Amino acid sequence: MREFLHGARMLLRGLGQWRRSPGAMALGLIPGFLVGLVFGAALVGWAVLLSNVVDDWTPFANDWDPLWATVLRTAIGVASFGAVAFLAIVSFTAVTLAVGEPFYDRIWRATERSATGRIPEADYGFWRAAGDAVRLIARGALAAVAAWLLGLIPFVGGVLGFVVGLLLTGWLLADELTSRALSARGLDRRARRAVLRENRARALGFGVATQLCFLIPLGAVAVMPAAVAGSTLWTHSALRETDADADRAPGAAR
């Protein structure tokens, strides 16, 4: 739990970047706002249509007892909206990071400069961001399906689907948000995943805290710049721990 909370605190530390680089952080609101308008409208539209969609999915329940038909359709409706909401958050992150690449690059550079005094050599342009976005959306779709299936369980499915979806998408957000700072240090995708696995609780803490903020109306727009800055600080912390563990390992060079 201590490591989980430590990861969550990295998002709070990312908010502190507003004091050091207010201009870059303010610019980081623009892509999130534009993408958020599109995704917000899509979610509202889905909510409006959902009742009719669920009825179309369950014609066989028309002859059921009204109580059980309502239980079934409510479970499907809650699970369907929750799954789409989780997919929307993952997709929002992916699309916003790709569209806002120049803006978030400035935030990353400002955070690196204020935290370490230097900026690592990085080759992380639009096309790399777009490729990461496609992979993130695909993995997010799998997480949304898992949350939807769990959400179909009567009575407890809504809570179970929410918790599992939160953890799965939190992990995906941590993976995507830290990719820039880790890649800048020469780590490929396999090495980045290894760093996340070695700091699993810390990564989940950061990702889940970010995800919870994204669930708040307009939270995704407001928190995205801090999430980029916080993920950079998360990377610094995780790599320091990894280096320290290597130094303490038996046979390490003295």
Characterise the protein shown here:
- The chain has helices at 2-15, 17-20, 22-27, 29-57, 66-99, 101-116, 126-151, 157-183, 189-198, 200-215, 219-248.
- The chain is mainly alpha-helical.
- α10 packs antiparallel against α11 (219-248).
- Residues 244-254 have low confidence and may be disordered.
Give a quick rundown of the structure.
Helices cover 83% and strands 0% of the residues. It is elongated, with a radius of gyration of 20 Å.
Notable traits:
single chain; about 250 residues; mainly alpha
Major sheet, described briefly? Answer: none
Cα distance spanning the termini: 32 Å
Report the portion of residues in β strands. Answer: under 5%
Give helix % range.
Answer: over 70%
- State the helix count: 11
Number of strands: 0
Principal-axes geometry comes out as elongated
Poorly predicted sequence stretches spanning 5 or more consecutive residues: 244-254
Mean pLDDT: 83
String of helices and strands: HHHHHHHHHHH
| Radius of gyration using CA atoms only | 20 Å
Helix-and-strand structural type: mainly alpha
